[in-house]
Amino acid sequence: MRCFSGALTPIPLTIDAAPSLQSHTHLMSERSTTRDKKALQRLHQVFSPLNLGAAVWLITTWSFAAFQLVSERDRLLHDAAERTQTEARAFGAYSKSSILRLSEFLLDLRASWLIGQSGFVELVRERENLVVDLSFQVAVIDKQGQLLYSSIAPPAPGEKVDLSKREHFRVHQNAGGRDMLFISDPVKGKVSGKWSIQFTRPILRAGNFDGVIVISVSPEQFASFAQTFTNLDGEVASVIKTSGQVIARVPALEGSLARAVSNRPYLRSDAPLAGSFRAKSGSEGVERVFGYFRMPEFGLNFVVGESVDLVLAPFESFRRVVFASAIASTLLLGLLYYSLRRSMVERRRHMEEMRLASLVYASSSEAMMVTSLDGTIVDVNPAFSAATGYTVAQIKGRTGHSISGASNAPTLVERLRASVEKTGRWGGEISIRRKDGSEFPAYLTVDTYLTHAHGERRRVALIHDMTEKRQAEEVIRHQANFDALTDLPNRRLFFDRLEQEIERSRVTPDALALLFIDLDRFKEVNDTLGHDQGDLLLREAVRRIAASVRASDTVARLAGDEFTVILPAVGDARVAQGIAQAILERIAAPYRLAGELVVVSASIGVAIYPKDADSAEALVVCADQAMFAAKKEGRNRSKIFTKALLQAEKERLRITQDLRTALATGQLALHYQPIVDLRTGKVCKAEALIRWNHPLRGPIHPADFIAVAEESGLIIDIGRWVLAEALEQLVRWQALLGKDFQMAVNKSPMEFCAPASGPESWSGVIAGRNVPVGSLVIEITESSVMGQDADVIDQLSRFQAAGIEIALDDFGTGYSSLSYLRRLDIDYIKIDRSFIRSLTRGPDDVALCRAIISMAHALRIRVVAEGVETESQRDILLAAGCNYGQGHFFCPPVDATTFEAFLSTVT
Question: Using only C-alpha atoms, what is the Rg of the chain?
Fold first, then answer.
């Protein structure tokens, strides 16, 4: 590592970065400018003259409405204040006159009292008759405060009524002989028990206090004048002393005379004689406008009030009118604004449409042509030039029909011209000729427009090139009618062609043949070599089939490994059968797949039109039935359809339908055949065998419906029912014959495909019946175990673990493999009846039977011989060491009642 001394010179790195920085700065500046422009544009839209004018209108309208409402409210409150003040003045003036009259009355009464009591009483009565607007009570109190006289209820002789504590008495007693009028607070009379206002003057003798003259007036009468202006709810009038004490109120209010008011402007000493104010009544909680009038010389205040609600009642209707006017004005503005706005938007839209139309016309990928009404080309867009090869200068001035293709029918061109002249428009498919003479399919749309409001009319032709669409339609058509793997006609196209050939055969004497081909064991190829190799096999098979037929024949793929061949004009079935044989031979040749040689065969059904069927669907059904018959006969062969095949298929379908209802309607029943111990002759087992008694056809042999039940899947429900019935019978017979008695039940290979667990399974049914160990024997066929399917073996193992024994039925008719007998731990084998039937023919058959029995015993398997018909057969089997026998020699299959009768005879 080297070290350098001296100053370090900085490297100017910013030189290379300068262009990038400038570019970034320029980009940021452009973005900022764009944002500013957009913001300015939005601002201009918001503050447009139309929006500003509408805003001013709205503000003015609602401001004026608010001003009207405030002014009207203020006017109503001001008028109420003036009115109540005037009424208070009138109230005060009237009350003052009443006070002065009462004062004079007191002076007269005092003078009369001083003269003598008899004249005094006369004066009181005289005044009561004269003063009709006031009801009053006159009383006289002596200088000690004792009641001397009362105009209503004078005191009884010796009775003393002490009024010395009353305010009006004490005021005069302490006045020092001064003569004055006193108006008291409302008091409750001791004699009358009513509220009253006391108007009093002192009785003076020689200038000294000698008692009190009292006139009592009810507060209601004193303030009765106020009733003239307190008729409405919320109106009130009161007389209030300077101290705040209420002495009268209209209308009267409970408790109002016993309280005082405060914080009122008229209670101030410097308050004007008249005025108004707003306040809330403490006793009612009602806000009122009050007018008052002060009368200082008597120490009284006269107050008149109207509730604010009453005052402002007219304001509500006025407010509704104002609001209605404002809303109407606003709606009018909205309508006007909407109309103007819509007009402006329509104008902008129209301008934008014109701009866009011009832009679309110039930049559209669709060819467009503008002509005059007589068809002369005025203008074309660039797409037109690109599609046809004509420039604007080359095509302008020519007629629109000059680009019509030669392949267009004359009637089509004539219909186009007539429609355009009559309606101004036309639309349809047409061929367009290019400048180089080539043509392309197009969809032409013609419309007529105005160039502008006062312009001449023009026709606009829109030409849409349909070349790609036609190609796509052809691809779709091919996909819809041809198989993707083999490129053969699919089911849809096959039926279409078959119906065409049938229609052709209707008018010719030649017959039509249909081959239905199904590859044998194709699924095994798929499962072992994979689907890709299966696809290769299908393609090669198609090539071989096509090489075996004539050029006029149609090969189609219906589905999977199913193919059909339509053979028109075959003459007779022998020609069709010869072609079918050629196909069989070619298909049977080995295939090389995945490095291996694979051999498959085919089964072919042949049906002839019109001999076998008169429609396409029916002909396919007949060929399909013939193909299945070929498979049943061993595969790798062809089969010609016959009426017998049709009848067999109908019979199979009828049995399938009837069998579906047989179980539900109780048509099925169980018969039982005894299994006898050959050494003891004792019946130790019974085999449950199903029987079907059809309500119309009578008894149907099991061989005629068991296979159908297996094909349709009905065997699963039937087998479950047989098991349940047999187990119920087993319980009854074990009670009769002992716990060692066994019941044998057959289980079809198809039943092993059903779920092995659950309440509906065999295991579930057996577990639900609590079957004793060793009481049930399940009989299976060799075909059930030959494949040694893991699920089947597992089910058998679980049965044996539950104490159920397994018997192999029809032994000797199949593969008779010894290996699975050892692996599956079979408990019994049942020698097929075909061996038992041949026992008496010769020693070889006996030796074979002995060998089977010896082999079984060597594997610790017990042997049951089926189909024992004679005594000699029984003796041979017994001598050979066979354990059990079953057959008509002992007893045929019988119902439960007959079986029990048979047992009673042998025991």
Answer: 64
Q: Hunting for tokens 């498959």 — which residue is that?
A: 600
Q: Evaluate the omega torsion of the peptide bond into residue 251 and state whether it is cis, within 30 degrees of 0.
A: yes
Q: Residue 866's pLDDT is what?
A: 94
Distance between CA 830 and CA 885 in Å, rounded? 9
CB 120 within 8 A of CB 331: no
Instruction: Report the C-alpha gap between 390 and 413 in whole angstroms.
Output: 21
Q: What's the pTM?
A: 0.46
Of 363, 372, 354, residue with least CA distance to 461: 372
| Cβ–Cβ under 8 Å, residues 606 and 615 | no
| Number of neighbouring beta carbons within 10 Å of residue 309 | 14
- Six token digits for residue 528: 């072992």
Sign of CA dihedral 227, 228, 229, 234: positive
- Classify residue 244 as exposed, middle or buried by CB count within 10 Å of its CB (0-12, 13-18, 19+): middle
DSSP letter at 8 equals P
Cis peptide leading into 202, omega within 30 of 0? no
DSSP label of 465 = E
Dihedral over Cα of 360, 363, 367, 371: its sign: positive
Q: Which two tokens stand for residue 612?
A: 């076998």
If 0-12 CB within 10 Å is exposed, 13-18 middle and 19+ buried, where does residue 630 land?
buried
Q: Residue 509 burial (CB < 10 Å; 0-12/13-18/19+)?
A: exposed
Amino acid symbol at 380:
V
Residues in the chain, total: 907
Closest CA to 152 of 164, 168, 140: 140
User: From the first residue on, what is the mean pLDDT of each consecutive set of 10 residues in the chain (907 residues)?
Assistant: 37 42 61 73 74 86 89 89 89 86 87 82 74 68 88 78 86 87 79 77 89 86 73 82 84 71 86 89 81 90 88 86 88 85 77 65 78 87 87 87 86 86 87 89 85 67 85 86 92 94 88 93 85 93 93 92 93 86 94 89 93 92 92 89 83 88 91 95 95 92 88 89 94 91 92 80 85 92 65 85 90 63 82 88 88 92 94 93 95 95 85
- Which residue in 373, 386, 389, 384 sits closest to 421, CA to CA? 373
Is residue 248 within 8 A of residue 199, CB to CB? The reply is no
CA distance 298 to 102: 13
pLDDT at res. 353: 64
CA distances from 740 to 208, 684, 715, 878 (A): 149, 7, 29, 22
CA distance 465 to 374: 25
Helices and strands, counts by H and E, the chain = 27, 32
Which candidate, 426, 539, 429, places its Cα nearest to that of 483? 539
**DSSP assignments along 508-540, one per residue:** SS--EEEEEEEEETHHHHHHHH-HHHHHHHHHH
Whole-angstrom Cα distance, residue 400 to residue 388?
Answer: 13
> Can you give the pLDDT at residue 830?
93
Residue 417: both structure tokens together:
């011209």
- Any idea what the Cα angle at residue 327 is, between residues 326 and 328, rounded to 5°? 90
- 633 conformational bin, left if phi > 0, alpha if psi -120 to 50, beta if neither: alpha
Hey, how many other C-beta atoms are within 10 angstroms of the C-beta on 419?
Answer: 15
What's the rounded Cα separation, in Å, for the pair 75 and 810? Answer: 122
Residue 629 is classified by DSSP as H
Three-state helix/strand/coil letters over 109-158: HHHHHHHCHHHHHHHHHHHHHHCCCCCEEEEEEECCCEEEEECCCCCCCC
Taking the C-alpha atoms of residue 54 and residue 60, their distance in angstroms, rounded to an integer, is 10
> How does DSSP assign 268-303, residue by residue?
STT--SEEEEEEE-TTT--EEEEEEEEETTTTEEEE
* DSSP H or E stretch at residue 246: strand 246-250
